[in-house]
Amino acid sequence: MKSNSGVSRFVVLLSLILSAGAGHTASDAKLMLNDKIALEHLEIIRPLRGAPNAQAYFTIWNGTEQGIYLARITDQSGLVFTLQKSKELNGDLQWQNASMPKVIPPKSEFTAKEGLFRLIVDAAVLNNVKADKLRMLFQLVDGQPVEASAMVLPFGTDPTDHHHGLLDGE
Questions:
Q1: How many angstroms separate the CA atoms of 102 and 42, rounded?
Q2: Could you give the CA distance from residue 150 to residue 134 in angstroms, rounded to a whole number?
């Protein structure tokens, strides 16, 4: 992947901003990374008992003038979670791993939501979750990891349907 110097400078600046607030975790639905980038509605839906994986959903708003690149998402121990995208094949929804890094263009949002994208989380990780929250790290290309707390919701819960600038559910 070829990177221009403007994007690299932006990511370095973002890293400095984030490292100044290191250790900060989201306590509610929105984590402002700076005044133009937000991680919203990070939610994990518990799987049926005995299922190997849970599914997570979130929105990242990029309000900057440059694209940002999401390289990977892990838990605090370093276990990498898989981002998947859906594809319709012969009328059936099929899931395949999404290419990483995932670009989020300027002035746009990336939404992992039911039927489009999902994050696959090892269900065993949820066994040790306290207070229904899981600490996760979002790694941007050339940047420090951004720590956020995912809300762990019961099986069958619908994830928040959110679009930047609208009320939830719109």
A1: 17
A2: 5
Q: Is the dihedral of CA 98, 43, 115, 50 positive or negative?
A: positive
| Residues lower than pLDDT 50 in the chain | 1-28, 168, 170
Tokens of 149: 């707390």
- CA–CA separation, 74 and 122 (whole Å): 11
Distances (CA, A) of 83 to 26, 45, 97, 115: 21, 15, 6, 13
Contact 75, 135 (CB under 8 A): yes
User: Can you tell me whether residue 51 is helix, strand or coil?
Assistant: coil
- Give the DSSP H or E segment for 11: helix 5-20
Which two tokens mark 12? 């370095």
Cα–Cα distance for residue pair 92/107, rounded to 1 Å: 32
Phi/psi-derived region of residue 71, left when phi > 0, alpha when psi is between -120 and 50, beta in every other case: alpha
pLDDT at position 44: 96
Domains with residue ranges and CATH for the chain: 5-153 (2.60.40.1890)
First to last CA, the chain: 36
Q: How far is CA 11 from the centre of its chain?
A: 17
